[in-house]
Specification:
187 residues, Four Helix Bundle (Hemerythrin (Met), subunit A), elongated, mainly alpha, single chain
Length: 187
């Protein structure tokens, strides 16, 4: 089911946002964060949501607009939201590049830029989970889902699937380590 996959992708994205926040805490303390992991997170956000996740949502949203314009209006301008996320991500990438190149950038500016991106992504996903996905599930017809599925590109998540791309290996290992640490803390 398309909405189930989109929801699972939101949970995966949340893991990445939590990793960005952890690395930012290391940076804020004045220590050196794992820039390989940060670059992998940025790279993931540059590729996967833009190329796969958002186009899927756009297909669902187009059907929702036809079936229930009021529900679509409540969701708002999804494309603009996605563009804003991409702009904020570019700012994160530029800030990280500036730090690594020893260009003048205030620590607090880096902090604000990263936190703005994380907050935007969380607000956006919360709105989709709360308003968009339930409305789509409520009003779209079986034929709509069939058309969406046939129009959508089949894809595997390059990070959270069995065929993970090599460039995400460090990030995958980092996520697994954090999940194991969290599990150990619960015991």
């Amino acid at each position: 089911m398309i909405i189930e996959r989109l929801s699972q992708e939101h949970r995966n994205i949340e893991k990445l946002l939590a990793i960005l926040e952890r690395e930012l805490e290391v940076f804020d303390r004045g220590d050196r964060p794992d820039y390989e992991v940060i670059h992998a997170v940025i790279s993931y956000f540059e590729v996967y949501p833009e190329v796969y996740h958002h186009p899927q949502e756009d297909l669902v949203f187009a059907k929702l607009r036809v079936r229930d314009p009021a529900a679509a209006a409540k969701v708002g301008d999804l494309a603009r939201e996605h563009q804003k996320g991409a702009q904020l991500l570019r700012r994160v990438a530029q800030a990280v590049d500036s730090v690594l190149a020893d260009r003048e950038i205030l620590r607090e500016d880096v902090d604000i830029i990263v936190r703005d991106f994380v907050a935007h992504e969380r607000r956006h996903m919360m709105m989709e989970d709360r308003d968009f996905f339930p409305a789509a599930l409520r009003v779209l017809k079986p034929q709509d889902w069939t058309e969406i599925a046939s129009a959508a590109t089949s894809h595997k998540d390059p990070l959270f699937s069995d065929i993970a791309e090599g460039r995400f290996n460090a990030l995958r290992a980092h996520i697994l380590r954090l999940e194991q640490e969290a599990e150990a803390d619960r015991k």
